[in-house]
Amino acid sequence: MKHPLPAAFLTFLTFLAFLPLLTAPARAQQSATDAVDDSVIAATIKAALLDNRHTSGTRINVDSDQGVVQLSGFARSEDEKNFATKVAAGVAGVKQVVNSVAIAPTTSIGTKLDDSLVTGRVKAALMDAADVKSLQINVETHDGVVQLAGFVASAAMKDKAGRIAAAVDGVRGVDNVLVVRLR
């Protein structure tokens, strides 16, 4: 004598049968480019900048958000800045490159030390601020001018970070190139 399958088990089997139909739209919307992780994109670009004799990979920062790449930091020339854009644009998964790299000549060791202190003070001030996600913000300083870069959630956060940086002792100017996420 056969035992009928329990109703709960039949419901489970029916669910499993229709599961591919339920998840198909989500899979269809995800393209191959979207599947590439932003951290892989950023790391690939950074490695290419470091490996290239035309760019100073140590002076150029790379952030990526949904395939939108922001280059920030400092280059010695307009040619170096432009070449960094070409390197970034050539990486798989990159949809757009926002090049916020500033042109700045090298400075003395003393100025670099002063800039390091200013950078530390700005980072500390951003960490102390409410409504600012300081870990999303790159802070670089060159000859007293602070550059804020990265992706933030709102224009209000971008503006607040700029005001905070400008109020820090030793800051001679602020280059606020933070990008507001489109989400």
How do you describe this structure in short?
By secondary structure, the protein is an alpha/beta fold. Helices cover 46% and strands 22% of the residues.
Architecture overview:
The protein is α/β, with parallel strands linked by helices and about 180 residues long. It has two domains: about 70 residues, 2-Layer Sandwich (Histidine-containing Protein, Chain: A); about 70 residues, Histidine-containing Protein, Chain: A (2-Layer Sandwich), CATH 3.30.1340. The protein contains six helices and eight strands; from the N terminus they run H-H-H-E-E-H-E-E-H-E-E-H-E-E. The strands form two sheets. Strands 1, 2, 3 and 4 form a four-stranded mixed sheet that branches. Strands 5, 6, 7 and 8 form a four-stranded mixed sheet that branches. Helix 4 links the parallel strand 2 and strand 3. It starts with 6 loop residues before the first helix and ends with a strand.
Number of strands: 8
Principal-axes shape call: globular
CATH A-level architecture of the largest domain? 2-Layer Sandwich
Terminal residue distance? 60 Å
Please describe the biggest sheet, giving its number of strands, its sense, and whether it closes into a barrel: 4 strands, mixed
H/E series, N to C? HHHEEHEEHEEHEE
As a percent range, the share of helical residues equals 40-55%
**CATH topology heading of the largest domain:** Histidine-containing Protein, Chain: A
Give a topology summary.
Layout (H helix, E strand, L loop, with lengths): L6 H23 L2 H4 L2 H14 L8 E6 L2 E8 L2 H12 L6 E4 L2 E2 L5 H20 L8 E6 L2 E8 L2 H12 L6 E4 L2 E2 L3
Parallel strand pairs: 2-3, 2-4, 6-7, 6-8
Antiparallel strand pairs: 1-2, 5-6
